[in-house]
Amino acid sequence: MADSAVPFVQIILDNTLGAILIGTWINCMLYMLEIVMVITFFQRFPNERPWLKVLVAFALFVDTLGTADNNACVYLYTISHWGDSVYLSIQNWPVPAYVILSGLSACVTQLFLCWRYFTLTKNYYVTPFLVAFSLTSFAGALVNAATVVAHSTYAERDFNIKTVTLWLVASVAADMAIAIALVTALRAMPTAFRNTQSMIRRLIASAISTGSATSLLAVVCLILYLYDTHVNITVGFGFCLGRAYTLTMLFNLNQRRSGRSADVTAMTGSAGVNNFSLGNIATRPNDISVGVHQVVHIDDGSKSYPGDEHTEYRPPSSTKNYGHL
């Protein structure tokens, strides 16, 4: 009888304490990657707008709290209260705290991407819907945390099904809506340059991949929770959710200069007998050339023309080659 009980207890520990322990290991690795990307951001863009620096610092602060909370959760269960059957049967304060902090990290990233979409399109109709999706997701996280506090035992976890579903489905909906909006905006940008088209395709692929990565993780968390509400496998995945969102924002910020250097500064094109070498027309990170003479700055939506920072703009003639404008 005792021998048969040992494997059963082992399974319980693997699915509860073991799952969240592994979740903290993966979370810490993602957090270290986040620190590296934050350092890269501040080194690469020392003259970035102050509010954006504050946003990145705030996201790192939230994820620092989230990482500390995740590790505290495991420490309390496995060290401080080891053998305390009453404590081990309850979802204590680190659990609702992780839900709130994960929802806040997701909301910060989603609102950042909404801002990028707005600066690119100046669309006053779609942007409010994207922001509403993001805020609904965060509200779902707050409601879910409140439900966990009200029904804190593992035996009552079924009470959380509706709020968990609301939180994660709203988060996935926000991710997918923002990704679709960005892809649609990028596909609508007119350009005759093959290199620019290639860059836009890469930006589209980036929007799809970053949106799908966080969506996939949220879907996995939801499926695992609905499959068995009484184990912590879904929490192990959920511990990494906030870091995945912040890494998405940092990836979008840090890739700007490399994409511009590779594609825009060496862009050339031809039309009829005219040859245009656009040279260094993009002097700011994350610019996209959408025509022979027009550059759209993604971060603020403004437009400029090659050479307008140094010389007076002249339209191309059919007989002159202007070289680097």
Order of helices and strands: HHHHHHHHHHEEEEE
Structural Rg: 24 Å
Give the helix tally. 10
CATH topology of the largest domain: Rhopdopsin 7-helix transmembrane proteins
Low-confidence stretches: 1-6, 258-295, 303-325
Briefly note the structural class of the backbone: mainly alpha
**Percent of residues in helical segments?**
55-70%
Q: List the strand order in the largest sheet.
A: 3-4-5
In round numbers, the mean pLDDT is 77
What do these coordinates show?
By secondary structure, this protein is mainly α. It has 2 domains: 2-254, Rhopdopsin 7-helix transmembrane proteins, CATH 1.20.1070; 264-325, no CATH class. It is 68% helix and 5% strand. The chain has 10 helices and 5 strands. Strands 3-4-5 form a 3-stranded antiparallel sheet. A two-stranded antiparallel sheet has the order 1-2. A hairpin with a 2-residue loop joins strand 1 and strand 2 (274-277). The radius of gyration is 24 Å and the shape is globular. 38% of the residues are buried. Residues 1-6, 258-295 and 303-325 have low confidence and may be disordered.
